[in-house]
Amino acid sequence: MASPMRLEQRHGVSRSACWRSRASPGWLSARVISRPIPAAIWFWRAVFSSCCRASSPIESVISMIRAFHKPWRFWRRTAKTLVGGVGLVAAGLALWAAFVQLTHNVHVVEPGALYRSAQLSPTMLDEMIQAHHIRTVINLRGAAPGEAWYDQEAAAVHDAGVTLVSLPMSANREPDGALLADLIQTLRTAPRPILVHCKSGSDRTGLAAALFELLNEGKTAAEADNQLSFRYGHFPWLTSRTGAMDRTFQRVVESRQTVLKVPADASLQ
Fold first, then answer.
1. Same domain, 254 and 191
2. Comparing C-alpha atoms, which of 120, 116, 171 is closest to residue 141?
3. Could you tell me if 63 and 148 lie in one domain?
4. Which of 24, 45, 103, 161 is the most exposed place for a label (fewest CB within 10 A)?
């Protein structure tokens, strides 16, 4: 263990405080707490020293418990730092998710072949069709006659002379074999360029884009899986049930040799 004089020189701690710390594994002073790295080193040295001086394993445990109880200010500061760090990360994630939605999650998957987005307004949809010469729009929310968003989309697509394909997928449930086969077939055979979208453009759209990259473009599973990432707002953690999209993609990856051999008019079992 370092001498009190050396500790005084390094950390600015009084010599009497150092001698007291040699007798018990308590903390040194508020000045040491302001320097977390030296303080942590000293703390663990004190714990080790106290355990070594104990005459039995029980005394070692008791000494360690006392050492953990005494530097309460150190642990409080550590807890505050951790909570603050978690808060900053959460705030950053929330800001990014908000930015993704404000920009309508419009991205190019493969230039001239596939584009992805959230639900677009009729004006934005028409601009997208004209800018990228879209020939097919795949709506993963399913047909919903009478709903404003669907009626407006159908009218905009009809006016532009574009094909609209509606597939009723859920972001929270794995699609059955028939629905998955319909999606794969549509991505293969629909006139290109294709625009695929759901409500937020994150989960169902991410699965469609990942399948397109894997089965149509010959990308590796890791490369294709990038379409299902938080970059596009996909958040399958904590209480979210959108991990169903990841499981569906993995299901296809594991059986892709069979999938690639499926005839255009067949369905996955």
1. yes
2. 171
3. no
4. 161
Instruction: For residue 65, count other CB atoms closer than 10 A to its CB.
Output: 10
Number of domains in the chain: 2
Neighbours of 18 (CB within 10 A): 21
Using DSSP bridges, classify how beta strands 163-166 and 194-197 pair: parallel, antiparallel or unpaired. Answer: unpaired
Kindly state whether residues 40 and 113 are assigned to the same domain.
no
φ, ψ dihedrals at 195, nearest 5°: -115, 120
CA distances for 187 relative to 21, 192, 195, 245, angstroms: 71, 9, 10, 17
Residue after which a domain boundary falls, among 23, 58, 76: 76
CA distance 213 to 79: 44
Residue 265 within a domain? no
pTM: 0.66
Rounded distance, CA 228 to CA 221, Å?
Answer: 11
Both 148 and 205 in a single domain? yes
From 122, 138, 140, 142, select the one nearest 130 (Cα to Cα).
122
- 163, 168, 173, 177: CA torsion to nearest 10: -80
